[in-house]
Amino acid sequence: MKFIDMHTHSTFSDGIFSPGELVDYAVKKGLSGIAITDHDTVDGIEEAIERASIHKGFVIVPGVELSTEYNNEEVHILGYMIDYRMEYLLRILKYLQDTRNNRAIKIIDKLKKIGIKINYRDVMKISGDGVIGRPHIARSLIQNGYVRTIENAFTKYLAKGAPAYVPKQKLTPLCAINIIRKAGGFSVIAHPGLLKSKTILNYLIHIGIDGVEVYHSKHTVRQSEKFLKLAQKHNLFITGGSDFHYPPKDGKENGDLGSVKVPLENIMELLK
Ligand code: AMP
Ligand code: FE
Ligand code: FE
Ligand code: ZN
Q: With the CA atoms of 229, 230, 235 and 241 taken in that order, what torsion angle do they form, in degrees rounded to the nearest 10?
């Protein structure tokens, strides 16, 4: 049976593999396809498609992961099969990327005020071609010896409630769903198991979300069962992915590329 991992990040956002490396790694892991779902950018898709063309039959689903906010909580919405060349979509993503750059500067300023010195240019170097996110600042904090792990950087400095936290500009869920629809794609609620509020899911279903990421590397089996039932009840698409950013340290399987996957056949059915 063939499988696809529907949630991956490349160097175009906060993953450590370039889209080409991601495809090679996926082939090595025995996958038959991946969706490229970088945060707020579609710039990595073309490179992935190009690389996939040398692996016969390997499927790339063009995607994006948009950050939205509802009732003070961050809600990630995945868009699949979007027209990643569409001017309208690119303009909105460009705006979100600009606001991320400004936010990075604010975070670095806040760090400076508490005696932590990292500079914007280093963070830019770490993010490379990519959209800047807190993980890049976390890596710079590690490089400068302030923390040992990305997790530490978040808890100590970058997470909500920590001293250098700066919120990012977010769309509303309705806006994200409409953008994805306008770009010809379908919308899926990402990792619903990470949501604190119980009401958000019903709200998203109410406003027309197309699918649910039932399977995710941070979901428990019980959570996935619950979301599967919910998706079936409301006739929503069922997807799943690892949310791969980098190979897990200490050789763990959970979170690695392909650690969560769905039958390719099911996804191809949706893409028709
Ligand atoms: P940003 O989009 O800049 O707000 O950064 C959010 C990203 O940081 C998420 O997509 C994750 O990849 C990562 N992240 C968020 N919280 C943590 C955490 N506690 N530890 C490690 N990585 C995190
Ligand atoms: Fe991320
Ligand atoms: Fe996410
Ligand atoms: Zn993600």
A: -80
